[in-house]
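To whoever is on call:

I kicked off a structure prediction for a single chain this morning and the downstream step that reads the tokens threw a length-mismatch warning. I double-checked the sequence; it's 228 residues and nothing unusual in it as far as I can see. Pasting both halves so you can look.
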Amino acid sequence: MGIYYIIGIIGVFFVFIAFIISNNKKYGKYLFDEIFNFLGSFLLSIYAFNGRMWPFFVLNIFWIIWSIKLFFSEKKLKKKKNNKKKVLYIDMDGVIVDFQSGVNTLSDEEKIKNEGKYCKVKDIFSKMKPIDGAVNAVKKLSEKYDVYILSSPGWDNASAWSDKYNWVNEYLPFMRKRLILSNHKNLNKGDYLIDDRYANGSEKFYGELIHFRSIKYKDWDSVLDHLL
């Protein structure tokens, strides 16, 4: 058995191994499949050249060139994927918006009339102020993360929808197209959710729930320490 015949057999074996690795979910797609594919094609080219099988030789040369191009393309794509920002959702009321500041603008009569249901008071969300450090925190987080504001609207307060948009437009204008209003926060896929309650889907959130105002995350400084 000639040496070139052995080289050809090894080449076929390497290409076969590359095929198994790249098509088996158990192994995933690693660098090994490109390495085996390149080595197999290289050895088959030697075998074809020695046997003067020119069509087969040319085919292998093109295959080697394509494999090298594919390798660097996948490497570039993987690098781009790793550099992709993680998705971060931030609740409004009690997290970046001081709900009590809106309640404080009501008259004594309005407070008594709407006690326990302040969220239903018309235009109350437009009167609220930002929580200390919230605006700067959102700006800092936006540099590292793909940030969205995710808030539950007041279903019994039609003005809440427009008030929340106007609030974001006033205090965080760069986030006005990143406002999501939903009572099912768990339907939004991401890496982190900063919320002050386990409600409206936040308790079922797919990623990490950062419980704002908890012992661990009592203010925005502690949140930034964790995320930055």
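Update from on-call: the warning came from a stale cache, not from the record. Cleared it. Sanity check on the structure: The longest strand covers residues 146-151.
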